[in-house]
Write a structure and sequence with these properties.
2 domains, 5-stranded antiparallel β-sheet, 178 residues, alpha+beta, 5 helices, globular
Length: 178
């Protein structure tokens, strides 16, 4: 009986190890940041430097090479953060661009066609001190500071995305202060 239990425990551990490595590999592949990703947020991006925060969050610094314009200094465009999200059972990737001044430049969701750009554009121009709360009623939309209008009544998904955007802003602020 002990042999069977030991065999079962070893088998379960082996299966979990294989599943874990496949999931990690898939997530790591999904979470690379490229120059194309940065260019989709900051259209002037000519090169980017990928790194991780002290918390392990993946981000990229987007740059514009001004040397061809007579300047010797490259222009820092901002940070691009990649946030993995599980939305409606599907793995997605949220790209959040934050300028050096701490404003959101653009938010883009890859891997989910149900969430439209109209919802995501509500975050553009927001700062950390702005509201990321989701409006739950018509009165909330009129409330100052204005709240974010939910995706076709899907408050839970809307708040998940709003929280991820706010986390990216917070991370950018920490990076800028270092």
């Amino acid at each position: 009986m002990k042999t069977i239990r030991l065999y079962f425990a070893v088998s379960v551990a082996a299966i979990l190890a294989v599943v874990s490595s496949v999931t990690t590999t898939s997530a790591e592949t999904h979470m690379k940041l490229t120059q194309k990703d940065c260019s989709s947020i900051f259209s002037w991006t000519q090169y980017c430097q990928t790194s991780r925060t002290t918390d392990g969050e993946l981000y990229c610094k987007a740059w514009f090479d001004r040397r061809g314009f007579g300047d010797d200094v490259d222009e820092f465009l901002g940070y691009v953060f990649a946030k993995p999200l599980l939305i409606q059972g599907k793995q997605t990737r949220l790209l959040v661009g934050v300028t050096e001044s701490g404003r959101i430049s653009r938010v883009k969701l890859e891997g989910n066609d149900l969430i439209n750009q109209e919802f995501l554009s509500q975050f553009e121009g927001k700062r950390l001190r702005d509201s990321f709360e989701i409006a739950k009623s018509l009165d909330d939309i009129l409330y100052e500071p204005s709240r974010v209008k939910a995706i076709r009544g899907d408050i839970e998904t809307s708040q998940l995305i709003a929280n991820a955007v706010k986390e990216a802003l917070s991370s950018a602020k920490k990076l800028a202060s270092n």
